[in-house]
């Protein structure tokens, strides 16, 4: 202690800070420990968090509208391709004209398959993935 006292201050100054009964650190710790968080303050804090969450959701509304438009457009294209494939299968069955192979290859092409798969997977699993990967919170 004497080495530190001589290097930075006197022994008395160091004892004033580090004394286990009356030191400044003990007094500061007692002050911090005596702080309380009342039920009213907890309720106010919870209300502020809820309001903040609602403001965040309101900020995302335009993106949700665009997401729905994209999903509707891609679903429409997918439905049209599916109807054309079904019609091509019936044409092959009735008139022996093979258009089904070309329609199926178009349906599974890079132009249709991957955009439809990605948009619909993201749109329909948007609410599922946080529960699966984020862990379930118990109340």
| Shape verdict | rod-shaped
**Number of helical segments with 4 or more residues:** 7
Main sheet overview: none
Instruction: Tell me the β content.
Output: under 5%
Mean pLDDT: 76
Q: Please trace the helix and strand order, writing H or E for each element.
A: HHHHHHH
**Rg estimate, integer Å:** 34 Å
Strands, total number: 0
Q: What portion of residues is helical?
A: over 70%
Class from helix and strand fractions: mainly alpha
Q: What distance separates the N and C termini?
A: 52 Å
Q: Low-confidence stretches at least 5 residues in length (pLDDT < 50)?
A: none
Layout of strands and helices, then pairs:
Blueprint: H1 2-8, H2 11-18, H3 24-33, H4 39-95, H5 100-107, H6 113-124, H7 129-133
Helix pairs in contact: 1-2, 4-5, 4-6
Task: Tell me about this structure.
By secondary structure, the chain is mainly α. 77% of the residues lie in helices and 0% in strands. The chain has a domain at 62-126. The chain has helices at 2-8, 11-18, 24-33, 39-95, 100-107, 113-124, 129-133.
Provide a concise account of the structure shown.
With 139 residues, the chain is mainly alpha-helical.
Provide the descriptors you would attach to this structure in a database record.
139 residues; mainly alpha; 7 helices
